[in-house]
Fold this protein.
Amino acid sequence: MPKVFAQMAVTLDGFIAGPDDGPEHPIGRQGHKVFAWQFATRWWKSMYGDGDAEPTVDDPVLDEIFARSGATVIGRRMFDNGEGPWGDDPPYHQPAFIVTHSPRPTLPKLGGTTYHFVTEGIERALELAREAAGDKDVEIAGGADLVQQYMVAGLLDELELHVVPAYLGGGVRMFDRPELAAVPLTPNRVIASPAVTHIRYDVG
């Protein structure tokens, strides 16, 4: 049965982006610390034309994420921060459903990505994403607040955290909702590399 999953990179002190994130600084100041492991992967190098990369332990983790996902759900803050840097050929290459309060026409992009703007809440966005994904999984891409909403609502099956050995000291926290204390997490896989530790949890 298809699953609903999320995967987020996070520092040891619990941040997914640095301070002052916004369209000018999509991952915040010092946010590169969160994603340095990803920038070194073959996927990133091939996507953004930085040349060949040596294989890493982290490559199969990203390959699996993109292979299993048939549709993506994105929060409006993450979309607003990322729309510019993602450009005309965003990395999703599949239908992407933006949870928002502001209606906007469907926006097709290159590479198979089409942005659909959903104003009826997280449940409706997930319903549409499941229809679009077919027999594939749905990824809740973030940001952190959206992932937390799906966890608290009991709508997330798996959560994978890419824990990087770095501190930011401030920024956007991965977890800050007291209600999450009632959401059980059971580790089902750990993959470690010199740059990051991937921990996948069953949720609920």
